[in-house]
Amino acid sequence: MHDTSSFFNSRVSGGKRQGMEITPLDIQAFMSEQPLGRVDAFGKTFLGHIPANNSYGLGEMDVAIRVSHPRIEDQEENLQIQFKNELKLCSLKHRNIIGLIGFSETKENFYLVYEMVQARPLSELVKGLTWEQALKVLKGTVSGLAFLHSHSEGPFVHSNISTNSILVTKDFVPKVVDFRHCVVEGQRTTHDNPRYYPSSQEGAIVKEDIFAFGLLALQLITKDGRTAYAVEEGLDLSPHHILDLYVPMFREKGNLVHASYGQEKESRKITEMIFNCLKKDSPLDLKSFHRDLVLLSLTKQC
């Protein structure tokens, strides 16, 4: 059995322990047969419920429990890497990052227990968002990613940012999910898709996340399915391809914000900020992007 002791710390925050080991028998007892979401390369997710007066000091709550595919020989190594990467959530406590409550493993499967979030993937919401809602999603997403990139145990690179890896609550609070490919900068990731950002380096780099966030933000402000299609299908999508697609439109219209949002004063500035994410040699970091978004919001309120 894989030793997980070096990959987690049991933490307490707001009465909830974060990242604690739970026995397989208890996880089986907590788990229902009701599926949540779609099956992915790691496994399936089920609705769970942790009862009151449990032996872990946890409050009564609904949870989401991910169960890996069987640990058969040809999948064991990849599943183990993805499981270990998800355990990085044990040390990541942020409003815009999904919380990992516990984990376990048997000879047959890996188990991950997450906070239950009533939310939908951003990919399902893009076309119906108002401008205020879109800005709130952008600010929350970039805040969570900036936290990853500046973490004392990192910087961490998520390696799989898209509209499918962002859950959005009914109050339009985004949560970054799916840390299966999250690594410390410089380490190699297990992601099967081509890199979003062309790099000569062997290991993951923070700029890849920044570029992927730029694609996500571009899809959000343009409501353009072509951006989503290119990313989801794993097409060769370099900064030059993106710029060739949108620069003429930007020069003609002054900004790329979809007409349904209305003509907001900050539209051009935000478009310029997003293009900076897509420039290969830009010194931009997401903490600065978040600061500028907040300043724009404050200016609008004055």
Automatic annotation (TrEMBL):
A GO CC term assigned to this protein in UniProt: plasma membrane
Matching InterPro entries: Kinase-like_dom_sf, Prot_kinase_dom
The UniProt record lists the keyword Nuclease: no
Name of encoding gene: LOC110704948
TM spans (from-to): none
The keyword ATP-binding is assigned to this record: yes
Protein kinase domain: residues covered: 36-298
Biological classification of the source: Eukaryota, Viridiplantae, Streptophyta, Embryophyta, Tracheophyta
Keyword annotations from UniProtKB, A to Z: ATP-binding, Nucleotide-binding
Single GO term (MF): protein kinase activity
Protein name in UniProt: Protein kinase domain-containing protein
